[in-house]
Amino acid sequence: MGAPDLVDESSPISVAAYLRMSTDKQQYSILNQSLAIASYAEHHNMAIVRTYRDDGRSGLNIEHRPGLLGLMEDIKRGRPGYEVILVLDVSRWGRFQNVDEAAFYEFLCWRAGVRVCYVAELFENDGSPFAMIMKGLKRAMAAEYSRELSGKTSAGQRHLASLGFRQGAQPGYGLRRQLLNARGELKTVMASGEVKSSTTDRIVLIPGPKEEVRIVQWIFEQCLAGELCGDIARALNDRGWLRPGQRAWTYGRVRFILQSEKYAGDAVYGRSSKKLGGTLQPNPRGEWIRKPGAYRPVVSPETFVRAQAQLAITLKGVSDEELLEGTRVLYAREGRLTGPLIDAEPGLLASQNMARRFGGLTNLYRMVGFTPKRNPRYAAVRSWVTRWRQSLTAFTQDWLIEQGSVVRRDGWCLTIDGAWSLSFSVLNGCHIHSRRQPQWFNHRPSELTDIVVFARGVCGEVGLRDYLVLPRMLFADWPRGFYRANGPIVDSCAYLSLAVLGDLARLSRMETQACG
């Protein structure tokens, strides 16, 4: 079952185990998979020398699965130290919507001399025509299961949204999430990053702290007085009314509040959708789900309607020529143009809206005669860094919550069990061969957290190479770059996976429980 009999009485075969659990069925728990794979290995004279795992990860794509990414990176390097990879079944390898993608990753293993064995399948993965047909059928069934599950989940969320229940994690500035039980009775107000403990509980939005509510109301008052979003943001910052985490207000954040109907008490769901690992796409207004009067409003519906009319007048009143002239003035004064400079300039739209208006910032720069002095690959690297940082932060938050920790997220910072904080910094490697030159540069300032994980990779490669899990207490200043060899302190903190974060969280949970 699952593979040809590989028994060798002389010495056990070195194998790796791959485990993945999403949230679909208890039968696929990490423990159950481990037991099944361990039993299979014992009966086939195999020794498990390496385990890759993706806890709570969807099988739709590889991008958000550090375990499988690490496995493929080891395969790519060659000589991973094992001959076989044991997986529970075909669906654990992945529910890729393109079944050829699953076959491609298995092919990479086969080409490296490593076989993939599905221990709970009734066919032997021996390359025979029967095995090929069965694998193709199983992969198609796994993909179809994901499509059906996605449809059912979407229908359930749309139904709950039509009843006025909140669908989404972040309530927004000036709002908080209120938990209701199955009978509609009030329970607790949920903290940032907290998840509901029962599937029958429901969530509604309520006004947040008085000082935040007052700031939201002040933003609407300024809009009705004819102030531009950028001017409102600068006034908020000048007054010291910053967002949580001492983050400054921007044009985009102010405009988001002014256009969010939840502040007027209306629940709106389905503005955009992301299906089966695809990209986020806006939906037509006719497909949005609305529930007027679902929440207690922060501003009156009349005030919200008047603000939309004022916004329309303000935005329509700024012509392309006026925006281009304002950009030329900014360029002449500063000698350069950047997104943050545009965001802070009175009379201009936010940089993302300027990009939308003129077909990208690069095109805007060209129209005003500015040529950025940067490597043409810079934009691709920056996008790669941001995607990985988002993926690692979201993955770690979900993973540690599922392990039982209380995780609060504030921007890029995660606070675990109220005991320690964590953030990620993704470093792109440079192909420099001199030992005296750093190969991974730390271009961006790191967050002020207890631990910073420096994830090292190379833009364009599949997966990351490793993680430097560095405590702040050991460094007065973070290194500007990292070498292949960095000395005993740094190199002793290098890991091939994020499992060490799970160990740290387990310790903090034990300490929290001991302190009562």
Structural commentary:
Helices cover 40% and strands 17% of the residues. Residues 432-436 have low confidence and may be disordered. The protein is an alpha+beta fold and 516 residues long. β5 (175-180) and β6 form a beta hairpin. It starts with 12 loop residues before the first strand and ends with a helix. It is built from 16 helices and 19 strands. The strands form 6 sheets. A 6-stranded mixed sheet has the order 12-13-14-16-17-19. A 4-stranded parallel sheet has the order 2-1-3-4, sandwiched between helices.
Secondary-structure topology with pairs:
Blueprint: E1 13-21, H1 30-43, E2 46-55, H2 66-77, E3 84-87, H3 90-93, H4 99-111, E4 115-118, H5 129-162, E5 175-180, E6 186-190, E7 202-207, H6 210-224, H7 229-238, H8 251-259, E8 267-269, E9 272-273, E10 281-282, E11 289-291, H9 301-316, H10 320-334, H11 339-344, H12 351-358, H13 361-367, H14 378-402, E12 407-410, E13 413-416, E14 420-428, E15 440-441, E16 451-457, E17 466-471, E18 481-482, H15 488-491, E19 494-495, H16 499-514
Parallel strand pairs: 1-2, 1-3, 3-4, 14-16
Antiparallel strand pairs: 5-6, 5-7, 8-11, 9-10, 12-13, 13-14, 15-18, 16-17, 17-19
Characterize the quaternary organization of these chains.
single chain
What value does the Rg take, in angstroms?
A: 26 Å
- Tally the beta strands: 19
Broad shape? globular
- Biggest sheet: strands side by side, in what order? 12-13-14-16-17-19
The poorly predicted ranges are 432-436
Strand content: 15-25%
Helix and strand content put the structural class at: alpha+beta
Give a quick account of the main beta sheet: strands, pairing sense, barrel closure: 6 strands, mixed
Task: Determine the number of helices (DSSP H or I, runs of at least 4 residues).
Answer: 16
Cα(first) to Cα(last) distance is 49 Å
- Average pLDDT confidence is 82
